[in-house]
């Protein structure tokens, strides 16, 4: 499992990109024990940015007992997660005309990301309600 990619993935899943250390540790433990799929996925993503260093590159900042992903961190993570076809259209040769589907790529990615974000927010809210009931 690639620690730095995992941190980026966890932080981006939080509504404001900020998580306290206890939440980060819990989420890391869950992902670390989730099986080989997660480890292989993070290795694939890390291979796209070999010199990844989330703190020295300003991708994550330390705040108030936790960490927050920066806009630059979100952009790097999006680059790592882009499919090869999407990367090809973004790096088209100069002078080549953009394809008709190129403008749709980012709104589609944004819609997919926002749906995932809403699901994660609902899960966190349910988890918090469960904790409140247990007390």
Automatic annotation (TrEMBL):
<feature type="compositionally biased region" description="Low complexity">
    <location>
        <begin position="92"/>
        <end position="112"/>
    </location>
</feature>
<feature type="compositionally biased region" description="Basic residues">
    <location>
        <begin position="113"/>
        <end position="126"/>
    </location>
</feature>
<feature type="region of interest" description="Disordered">
    <location>
        <begin position="88"/>
        <end position="135"/>
    </location>
</feature>
<protein>
    <submittedName>
        <fullName>Uncharacterized protein</fullName>
    </submittedName>
</protein>
């Amino acid at each position: 499992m690639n620690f730095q990619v995992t941190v980026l993935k966890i932080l981006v899943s939080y509504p404001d990109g900020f998580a306290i250390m206890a939440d980060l540790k819990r989420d890391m433990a869950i992902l670390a024990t989730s099986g080989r799929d997660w480890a292989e996925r993070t290795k694939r993503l890390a291979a796209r940015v070999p010199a990844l260093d989330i703190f020295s590159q300003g991708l994550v900042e330390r705040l108030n007992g936790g960490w927050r992903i920066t806009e630059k961190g979100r952009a790097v993570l999006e680059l790592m997660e882009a499919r090869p076809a999407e990367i090809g259209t973004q790096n088209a040769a100069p002078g080549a005309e953009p394809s008709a589907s190129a403008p749709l790529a980012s709104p589609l990615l944004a819609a997919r990301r926002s749906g995932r974000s809403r699901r994660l927010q609902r899960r966190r809210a349910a988890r918090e309600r469960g904790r409140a009931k247990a007390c």
